[in-house]
Amino acid sequence: MHTVNIHDAKTQLSSLIENAVNGESFIIAKAGEPLVKVTRLEPHSPSSASRLFLTGQIKVPPDFDSINAAEIEQLFYGASTEATAAISAKKP
To answer: DSSP per residue over 13-67, as a string?
Structure first.
């Protein structure tokens, strides 16, 4: 692992990052004092634990998609389809 000073790191950042991605970590130093180590990150793979943090704690009812459908429809369209159909049926 090699050490580069801050000025060189700024001017060569793209190539240093490319090397780090390929497994060649490096240290950035200021006045000879090491400050940070730059190394490649491993690809993030979402674990099932992070996605299922509420498993068993909540229940979704089977009619979830139709709960308050008439009220929601009224909010979007101003009237439910049943009311609209009834009005349309009465028109000559």
So the answer is: HHHHHHHHHTT--EEEEETTEEEEEE-PPPPP---HHHH-TTTTT----TTGGGT
